[in-house]
Request: fold
Amino acid sequence: MSNDGGSRALSAAVRVALGALFVSGCGGSVTREPGREGEAAPQDVTLGTGAPSSSGAIACGSPGAPPSPTSLDGCKAKLRAAFGDDAGAEFWNPPRPLSKDPGLVACCDAIEASSEPNKIEKFRDVGCCGVDVESNGRHCTPWGPPVPPAFAGRPRAHRGLA
Amino acid sequence: MSVLDLHLESAQIASTLDVVVPEPLRDRTVLTWLGRMVNEHGSARVFEGLAAQIERASLGADLHDECLAFAEEERRHGIMCGAVVVAAGGRAVADVPAADAFPDHEDTTPLCALARNVVSIACMAETVAVALIGQERDDMAPGTLHTLLTRIWADEVGHARFGWRLLPTILERMSTEERADLEAYLPVAFERHELAHLPLGAVLCEGGAALGLCSGREARGLFYDTVAQAIVPGLDRLGLRAGDAWEKRHERRVAA
Reply:
């Protein structure tokens, strides 16, 4: 990306959001992700092998069938082990190739095939955007506004708010 | 799982594209634009859901119809993205998983439910799209693909402006309690959009910019800049404490 291109594109977004009345510094403060810029690539990440865990609960090797909740949890644990607790928000600098680890690929395929609610969020959240699976391009691109998230955990009784 | 087959419609547009894809970039070009095809086409029902909410909130037929027109534009974008797939030697056909349900937000009032979705769809997702697609367009040399991207970008600008124009109208009608409820939702929406990023390892390789490929890392940088310089100030200006919401976006995950 050229700096000039990025700057013009950002200006367009600012104009859309703030219109002609935009004044620099008109409010709001945001901190960038801590430690991301210039951060060295993690060297100690070990990708999983795809073998079942000690619990024997993982069924990642059969992506064709929707996994049981137990196996899905196992897959998520495997992905967490590979990418860390904050996998969904993680990215690497410098960038690294997508993982082709068969176990992780099978896990992400299993999540894709599952019937879990909000599975696309889960796909991203557990780190599947770092795995070389076919659905990566569908779930890990900001193109096309996604379905807005529900406000999980809120009781329906709030309906009579006003 | 269903199949989205836009090949015939996309092939008609593909014949007008003078896109030359080097063999090493072919697979990535096909996968990237196939993903965009699915996402763009799938966004049609997001705008249809929003149109239904606008109707329920009695905000007028014009706004409702405008929103439905956006749905048609998203379908058209899907076909246009599919055209790039076909031009690169692929087929504009993809398996599409069952989509998440459009949230009616029954835990709150119809007005606040609408405000939540306007913020998420237009003020966040489409505003980020304006920056990201604009960046790709600026990095691309003039040509038929640049023209195609310009058409999509212009529509996205319209979708984002719609939300920023509509939100003040909704806020004027909301009670203090409803505004507080909307503010409580902002961290949820911010977290969702932070996660909707490009593939982590995506690296812009030589010749990739001409084909609309991009770097995941640089796109995330532009995402954060757009949040900081466009979205948060835009929401703050409307009296919503968006900066605080951005800072709190991970708290729910920690609490969970």
